[in-house]
Amino acid sequence: MSQTPLSGAATPADLLRSALATDPARPLVTYYDDATGERVELSVKTFDNWVAKTANLLQDDLAAAPDDRVALLLPAHWQTAIWLFACWSVGLTVCPGGEPAEAALVVSGPDTLAAALACPGERVALALRPLGGRFPELPAGFVDYAAEVPAQGDRFVPYAPVDADRPALVVDGEELTGGRTVTLAGDHAESLGLKPGDRVLSTLSFDDWAGLGGGLLAPLAAGASVVLCRNSGQLAPEAMEQRIASERVTHRVG
């Protein structure tokens, strides 16, 4: 049996490290935004580079520490996937769609900035513009992710080892440890029948397990890759079928 990223993984961050060791050049995340026409494809290596930079930003510039809660107010976007794994690399607890007032740090897209102001700690804003562009004007009270992340280091080492038995994710009202998150990802991959090299297309949000598990974690656990589609509701059925064919999609969630 060929080795998959799940082999030996204790935390979600381990899944990415294992994928990097297995095949760093293969595509990991392909992203479409059908409102803007944007298409981004990230290899495992490129994705890991973004994760390292973001984790360094969290640990060094934003003083995030293990067990801090992060409210992630973002759509299913390629940068959201990066933030998830950056948080897990530091040992933070990620709350997709979580309450900013209860978090030590909030990460917000342009549509949720007003709600994000309730966070008493650091606030990071993502413009979610094509090519990872900055905000034309920095929102008051926020750090602009696109302006700060390029200068960060390409390699990341946490100040403290990430404990698989500590909280890593709050989803569907349940707090999951890192180890439990990995186990559920493997179970989800098995239920979908995923295997190395598969391509999973998802139109779901990352705010619940159906989208986060099916559209990111289960594929990574299986050695598969994902095609994330945002604003695809207005896409004609024949255009979606063409995308499925051109991206060699083997499974679809949502």
Summarize the helices and strands and which ones pair or pack.
Layout: H1 12-22, E1 27-33, E2 38-43, H2 44-61, E3 69-73, H3 78-90, E4 93-96, E5 105-108, H4 113-116, E6 122-125, E7 143-144, H5 145-148, E8 167-171, E9 174-177, H6 178-192, E10 199-202, H7 209-222, E11 225-230, H8 237-246, E12 251-253
Parallel strand pairs: 1-11, 3-4, 3-5, 5-6, 6-7, 10-11, 10-12
Antiparallel strand pairs: 1-2, 8-9
Please describe what this structure looks like:
The structure is a single chain. The chain has 254 residues and is of the alpha/beta class. The protein has eight helices and twelve strands. The strands form three sheets. The protein has a five-stranded mixed β-sheet. Strands 4-3-5-6-7 form a five-stranded parallel β-sheet. The protein has a two-stranded antiparallel sheet with strand order 8-9. Helix 3 links the parallel strand 3 and strand 4. Helix 2 crosses helix 3 and helix 6 packs across helix 7. It is globular and about 45 Å long. The mean pLDDT is 96.
Characteristics of this structure?
single chain, about 250 residues, alpha/beta, five-stranded mixed β-sheet, five-stranded parallel β-sheet, 12 strands
Give the CA-based shape. Answer: globular
Low confidence ranges? none
**Which structural category do the helix and sheet elements fall into?**
alpha/beta
Distance between the termini: 30 Å
How many helices does DSSP assign?
8
What order do the strands of the largest sheet run in, or round the barrel if closed?
2-1-11-10-12
H/E element order: HEEHEHEEHEEHEEHEHEHE
